[in-house]
Amino acid sequence: MNCEEIRTVIPRYMAGESDAAEAVAMEEHLASCRQCAAELEADQRVDACLREAMLEDEPDTSAVIRHVVARMEHVPWWQRYFSVGMPRFAAVGALVLLVFFVGRGVYVHQAENNIAMAAAHDHYMDLVVLKRTDWAYSGAPSAAFVQTNFPETPDLVHMITPAGGSLEKVRLCSLKGTHYAHFVFQTPQGEVSVFLRRAPGEDTYKPGNVHDRSNGLEVAGFSSQTFVGAVVGQDGLVPAGEIAAQESRAL
Amino acid sequence: MGADRTSEFESMALPHAASLLRYAIHLGDRGKAEAEDLVQETLLAAWRNFSQFESGTNCKAWLFRILINLRYKRLRRAGRRAEVPLEAEESHLSRPENISRNAEMRAAFARLSPEHQEVMHLAVVEGFEIREIGEMLRIPTGTVMSRLSRARAQLRAVLEAVRPSHKEKQ
Description:
With 251 residues, chain A is α+β, with helices and mostly antiparallel strands. Chain A has helices spanning 3-14, 20-32, 34-54, 62-72, 77-82, 88-102, 104-129, 140-149, 156-160, 240-250, and strands at residues 136-137, 166-175, 178-187, 190-198, 210-212, 217-223, 227-234. In chain A, 52% of the residues lie in helices and 20% in strands.
């Protein structure tokens, strides 16, 4: 290794992440090059001083912890009992109790709201928090996605694009165990998610209309003879209900 | 979520609140209250989605990824990039009377670009691996390493400018 190569990999060496061969090459070079050795030593001193300076004052987290713990105790019931990863029997048991005690009408309403909240959750997690990487982006990848998943409706993207918007990306997702395509459009009002699945002639629950207050989102469900779906966007900015009505007419 | 899950979250995630708050304060744009609000939002988002956390992976790195994404979202919503005024950093990380070498170092660090502060803070202060930093910031590991090199060089240059004796002591 020459000096230039050494300086390229010094950050990895300083982090203790060089493999054995790189570490040996580094040490051999440092033993024979006073300038690189001095650079490394100077960097190590700066790191030590920075660490000491930044860790000198421990920030007071008591208010944050108090607030978080208080909010954890008040997570809405649907999040506690229907969160992703909960044992399936617990969700089924809760649903059976609901049907038994409250009646099917309320159950249907709640099931539709649960799908809507799951759509809001997926929008929030996909676009804000976790930013998953398994998307098909606009252009050829999204065309292939539509061809694979909606072969009967090749013009689907054009049909569901909100006014003034353009498709950014699409992926498959699961809302309460049912697969939907999650389309993301950039519109003048902000990012809009359209969740969609084919449900020709099915007596099925469609997403309801809800406001996800904790994340500032609005969900508007829609259905047609062939599709069910939901529109999710920033509450107060994106006209989710209006877009959902357009989707219903277009599909 | 059950009591076991709650206690698991409390023991795995909440101990990282100080690191999250330190990072949010240092890179925050509106002071300590905004930083506390960001950390609260991060921990509550983590709590709501704790079932998606993969056991055996680095919980602290997962929390930082959430915090960084939420912070970018706030910056986008506010229509501005991160700005780190010198005075803001000083006001909440050191006592006024404590005009020390540490304060001088923090002031010098605050003069680096936000991108360089990000990688330096995550690597040097929080001890994340280069790969983890790349995943958090969504940049290649080669970019993380080159930013680290440039950040260290700039920090040394700033220190030498404000403290000429610094070079001699190295």
